[in-house]
Amino acid sequence: GPMEDYSPVTAARLENPEPGNWLMTRGTYKGWSYSSLDQINTSNVKSLTPVWTFSTGVDSGHEAPPIVNNGVMFVSTPYSQVIALDAATGDLLWRFKPKLPEGFSALHNTNRGVALYGDKVYHAGLDAMLVALDAKTGKVVWEAKVEDWKTGYYMTMAPLVVKGKILVGVAGGEFGVRGFVQAFDAESGKPVWKTYTVPAPGEPGSDTWQKPDTWKTGGASTWMTGTYDAESNTVYWGTGNASPWFGDQRPGDNLYTSSTLALDGDTGKIKSYFQYHQNESWDWDEMNPPMLVDFQKDGATTKGLLKTARNGYLYWFKRNPDGGISYINAQAYVPQNVFKSIDPKTGRPEVDMAHKPATGKAAQFCPGLWGGKDWPYEAYNPKTGMVYIPSNENHCNNLEGKVEERVPGQWWTGVAIPDLHFSVDTKASFYGEIQAYDVDSGKRVWRNLYPASMMWGSILTTGGGLLFTGGTNDREFRAYHAKTGEQLWHFRTNSGIMAPPSTYEVNGVQYVAVQSGYGVDAAFQQGLMSELVGWQKDVPQGGVVWVFAVSK
Ligand SMILES: O=C(O)c1cc(C(=O)O)c2c(n1)C(=O)C(=O)c1cc(C(=O)O)[nH]c1-2
Ligand SMILES: [Ca+2]
Prior knowledge:
binds calcium ion, EC 1.1.2.-, binds pyrroloquinoline quinone, four-stranded antiparallel beta sheet, 2 helices, oxidoreductase activity, acting on CH-OH group of donors, metal-binding, mainly beta
């Protein structure tokens, strides 16, 4: 089998992955979710058929892409399992099934993928443990405690490998944790650096926490994988909402909540940052990092960053030679009623206070707390020059805050889950959609509307001129024409698909792979939609790895 000559993953391979492999969650450090493979293309995709499937035996939301290294596939599942499979045949090679601690529960029982380096597989567990597994056997090589899960920290993202270090971020923004990004030595598991995303008194930015001690529980969790610019050795990492949710309880801008941080890859030092909205009060985590995309501006190619924000805006930045972030422009990609304007120089929004919830003051805001988009990945195709955004419209929340005492490890947002007051425009002709924008002009080129579903699918785009995604409540996996948005193929799977598809090649055959397995917030929202507009309450659950190829 393919394990006998397992090929170690080097820093050079990660910087320049072979087209036939999918070595990290979004394909490359740039975060494009793009593969140059083109054997499957717009003319033959109609003949795409399943070649093998594998039941994970796990329920809840599967959010990890199949990671593939020369014929070996690694998938992770909810509840922190890792499964190694023969990427061509679906044979099970090994399974890592950790025992989660007694009494353990997480708000989001999911995982977004493993990282590969050397002859090891790295996995960030819900119990806030980072484990290194032997890629050939699945045996634990080392374990590192990132945090104490009892205090509200958990981990859901895929680690990021940077020059022999394994970088992880934490979740817990709804529990009042203090976020950080931490790096561990890939060989030994020893901690190398740790950068908090909320400054302590005396550190730069600490004056943005005006009320004593609010910084200690300030949120800014780091629950999605960063992107990386090897040239400037800069890691771009996103941060989540501030805690608790209502900004009047923690006066100030609250750096670095809902921001992108530019970190030095060797030391973790904060080089630069951009905060999308200040004194966060909408649960608009800005956890996704920007993609590294170059675009035309004023007749010249600009080394840039493109960020699809949960706050409903699409942002263009300049990536400075030292990795620093300079604001260029932003435009709404879904209707949003919170920003009155955005300062053209700084990118700082002016907020309409009528749509900013506070303690004892209810306010409605749109899009609602799940944002213009939540975590599912947008994609960039260099052949079309377009960014593809899985987004949602015509939904709002109406929140009113309360002062609550914090109990470590418990929901602490200032509003109870039954009081989230999610609403939708029941007359709307659609809710979910895919939108394609030209990254040079910012013009929308096409959109595809889903009248009876939200869109929670990560997007893969390919050199074959295609987009692959699921994300809808009808269990479909679909292929679209990247230029026109025309649907070219679809296949009904076992469950709903949120996980990012990936594509790879073994023995000259191109495969497209994806995990189907609905759950977590998409399922939560689907339940609410069943009350509001009568959609079926449950989308079937249970994880299956699907692998497709074009039949010859
Ligand atoms: O603040 C946080 O730490 C945090 C963590 C996570 C997570 O780790 O999955 C989510 C969120 N927030 C969140 O706001 C959110 O909407 C969300 C959706 C999902 C999901 O997996 O579908 N996770 C999370
Ligand atoms: Ca959050």
